[in-house]
Write a structure and sequence with these properties.
Number of strands: 18
Number of helices: 14
Oligomer: single chain
Structural class: alpha+beta
Strand content: 15-25%
Distance between the termini: 28 Å
Helix content: 25-40%
Largest sheet: 6 strands, mixed
Bound molecules: glutamic acid, magnesium ion
Radius of gyration: 21 Å
Shape: globular
Amino acid sequence: MSVTLADPLPGGRPGEVALAQRLAGDLAAQGVHGVVLPFVDTAGITRVKTVPVSALESAVRWGVGMSPVFDLFLADDSIVSSDRQGGPDGDLRHVPDLAQLTPLAGQPGWAWAPVDRMTQEGMPHHSCSRSLLRHLVSSCAQRGLTFRASFEIEFALSLPGDGPSFVPACQGPAYGATRLVEQSDFCAAGLAALAAQGVPVDQIHPEYAAGQYEVSVGALDPVGAADRSLLVRQTLRAVAQQHGLRISFAPSVLAGGVGNGGHVHLSLWRDGENQHGTGDLRYSMTAAGESFVAGVLTALPALAAVSTPSPSSYLRLQPSHWAGVYRAWGHETREAALRVVTGTRGQRATAANLEVKCADLAANPYLLLTGLITAGLAGVDGGLPLVPEITGDPAGLPPGRAPDRLPMSLTEAVSMFSAWDLSERAFGEFVPDAVVAVRRGEIARTAGLDDAAVAEAYRWVY
Ligand code: GLU
Ligand code: MG
């Protein structure tokens, strides 16, 4: 079933109550006891409530209560406030999307369904990131514009250690066959669990950094893709635990090393045609495709506070680490923030896409896609021209010849974000205020810490 695009309604959307009753019966018959109801906060932390299967119907009708103050939570669970929001007042109703209900193969006894956050008056909460993305996707569909998206999931596996320590769970070389053998059971169990949940895996492989692996999964509509990125991480975490491992999706697990990216693959489709692979401009982009890329490229510095939102993100964003730290695009260039992916001859019309390499998995995936799509569409609507591509690693260029770097600190990212002209169009009135307050909170929390301490502070939270 594809994502439900309509807003939740008090009492349930038409037909949903009967569906919830039927699904609850099916789940109980499969031995499922509880349903995990996740959402992602401004800091990028996935937080949950859960209900017993018997309360699924009530959750669909009336939602499950949770405070709006989570919009102002930091990654260490401390709470900030702004002039406009924060504090102990109010309640929201978290309403599961039944179309995404999935029994969790890695957590027997549990199912999972992402939520939209609704007010007690039955309106979408102004800062519900999933609702913002749903609304954007719905309004684009009315213009004949659709999108395909997917998040690459990089992670590091650790043996159980003391406290926050990280002990790589493999020793073999980067991308090495030895690493696959070392974590053979985990990798096979991960594939099995994802397959059982209907998640098509493109590949799983050992990566570069200590203990690092990657899973890439099939593309979906944007809301489905963001949901899927949560589901994949929930699943891999559970499978890791079953194998006595700890898993970290943090941007920087060990300061100074290669980090975990959360590269976003995104394509714009108009009237069913992929604008990245059916045109006669560069690399088969259409004019709209090129302008979409240009729009994203223009907004990348401002969006850093969303795509790379953690102090840990800036430990990862190093040149020559394939993290895409330069504000540039290139064809299959792993040092440019935007990599134009054409795919192989014969599959371009369906497979070509734009990869946003700078992003990491501390990002709230709903906010990130909302920002990227808004930026890309502003490029399309303005007919923005796309600058020439780069090739090679800009780190080798003489000073002055390299493209600009993306923000190199969270402080710089916040100031670029605060000046973004599309911020209200993308996120409305309250989300930008929360983003700034939360990022400033993270900056204050890490003031004076050295890089190793920053990596450690965020190692196990994402
Ligand atoms: N680990 C790299 C990053 O920080 C990406 C490696 C790759 O291109 O797969 O984004
Ligand atoms: Mg990778």
